């Protein structure tokens, strides 16, 4: 249980640190914009850590389910190796799912000034920059 909580808190620190340093530095600048490559990098880490956090929360829900429904078998079911496997599976799922989404995004054609006037990059801002069709067929 504490292993999963410590991984969740570490993941929260990493998740927040993808956006907050850029936001704090933009407070002191007059021209706040981010380049296309900077935006895609920030989006990749933000989305992958967010998806990893969702998967880790699902693993923690299963951990609590086992602790409540099978308290006598908890140590047998939730061994340290199972906890490590659940954390590793969450990380792999998060980064793999985000890389699939980013590869699909990078297949689009971008033209014109690829500058975003914001400190935070998300998928809608990147899709606005695209000059090709954004729908899959």
From TrEMBL:
PROSITE patterns: G_PROTEIN_RECEP_F1_1 (PS00237), G_PROTEIN_RECEP_F1_2 (PS50262). One of its GO terms (molecular function) is G protein-coupled receptor activity. It comes from Macrotus californicus. It is a multi-pass membrane protein. This is Olfactory receptor family 5. Its main location: membrane. It is found in: Cell membrane. Pfam families: 7tm_4. It comes from the Eukaryota. Putative odorant or sperm cell receptor. Keywords: Cell membrane, G-protein coupled receptor, Membrane, Olfaction, Receptor, Sensory transduction, Transducer, Transmembrane, Transmembrane helix. Residues 1-137 form the G-protein coupled receptors family 1 profile domain. One of its GO terms (cellular component) is plasma membrane.
């Amino acid at each position: 249980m504490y292993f999963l909580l410590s991984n969740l808190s570490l993941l929260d620190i990493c998740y927040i640190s993808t956006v907050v340093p850029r936001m704090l530095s933009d407070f002191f600048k007059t021209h706040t914009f981010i380049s296309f490559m900077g935006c895609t990098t920030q989006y990749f880490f933000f989305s992958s850590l967010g998806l990893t956090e969702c998967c880790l929360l699902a693993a923690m829900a299963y951990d609590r389910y086992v602790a409540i429904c099978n308290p006598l078998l908890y140590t047998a079911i939730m061994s340290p190796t199972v906890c490590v496997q659940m954390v590793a599976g969450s990380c792999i799922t998060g980064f793999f799912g985000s890389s699939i989404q980013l590869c699909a995004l990078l297949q689009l054609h971008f033209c014109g000034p690829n500058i975003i006037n914001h400190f935070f990059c998300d998928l809608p801002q990147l899709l606005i920059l695209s000059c090709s069709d954004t729908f899959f067929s």
